Amino acid sequence: MKIGITCYPTVGGSGIVATELGLALAEKGHEVHFITSSLPFRLDDSHTNIYYHEVSVSSYAVFQYPPYDLALASKMADVIKEEKLDILHVHYAIPHAVSAFLAKEMVDGNVRIVTTLHGTDITVLGDDPTLSNMIRFSIEKSDIVTAVSDDLIRQTRELLHVKKDIHTVYNFIDERIYHPRATVNTKKELQIKDEQKVLIHISNFRKVKRVDDVVRVFHLVQKEIDSVLLLVGDGPELPIIRQLVKDLGISDRVRILGSQKRVAELLSISDVKLLLSSKESFGLVLLEAMACGVPVVGTDIGGIPEVIEDNVSGFICKLGDIEDIAQKTVELLEDERLHENMAIAARKRATVDFHKQKIVHQYEVLYERALHDK
Ligand code: GMT
């Protein structure tokens, strides 16, 4: 098939999943055309069957806001026509599914639109009265709609009253990157003693990630267990988190590492990963940790309980229940046998239930269906 992919090309989970999907489809022999504002993270020109079409926006004095969505629609229509695309797979309803709808109109309907919902477009924007009708419209007008968890489908129906069929297609990771790595010097380099346990949190430090809860949990854990917390990523809450770490007097035990490319290496020295978000449609970082053999502790919200099997590959805790989360984390770190069993179960879950080829095949089946239902 000839498949166009549009996503936010930045480092976020949706961009990673869209890029990995494109790469996997190209490896299977499909022709893949990325139509994005810049080269997606992890994509370069060394891949067979992959093409990149950059969307550029003209800025004229009359435009108070440069019309990216229209430039994208126009570029999509050009690529559909020139490259004879069968499928245009857009990640995020706003603005990508809307631009795709316009592009499809411009080419007289000669393409099928597949829209994947990743979360923020529904759980945050779906509540915004200036956008909710547009989001619903773009979903209803797509030929096939997928979401990254059952919970996201539930929320889409609840918030937007969408009637259309939505298929759950879970996220996946590239096992060639995420697997337990041999790490000889990493602990030493980060001034962590061999015997110290390592907790890790990775996110974009938005309010919904509740990184303050992570720090408060660690504050309790380190009283019981000799341990260090790695904070990986950057975002608006980081200054507040830095201050909290100082106020709690744990600066010597917290390593604030900013954005890092060597995530698999950092996960490989970690004993537990915490994701305590208040909104999380899937939690790709959980899968990354699990694939590296790291048990995970997450909150009982969104798609997190669909990723972590409670008491098997990690623990599911009540949102904001700092004491219970700390107690479960201590239990996991103290009980070697429990930790080993959970590490094995976590890796198995990530690499079997969320196996890349299995998920990529699910998308292929949906593409076929979209073409068949023409
Ligand atoms: O979590 C974010 O803030 C980034 C956002 C994105 O656009 O990548 O993540 C969303 O999509 C990911 C990939 O499907 C999911 O793993 C994340 O759970 C989801 N984030 C939220 O729902 C908050």
Structural features, described:
With 374 residues, this protein is an alpha/beta fold. It folds into two domains: 2-172 and 355-372, 3-Layer(aba) Sandwich (Rossmann fold), CATH 3.40.50.2000; 186-353, Glycogen Phosphorylase B (Rossmann fold). The chain has 15 helices and 13 strands. The longest helix has 18 residues, at 336-353. The chain starts with a strand and ends with a helix. Ligand GMT binds next to α1 and α4. Ligand GMT is lined by residues 12-14, 17, 118-120, 123, 148, 171, 204, 206, 208, 279-284.
Main beta sheet:
7 strands, parallel
Could you name the CATH homologous superfamily of the largest domain? Glycogen Phosphorylase B
CATH fold annotation of the largest domain:
Rossmann fold
Number of domains: 2
Structural class, by secondary structure, is alpha/beta
Cα distance spanning the termini: 15 Å
Name the bound molecules: ligand GMT
Total helices: the number is: 15
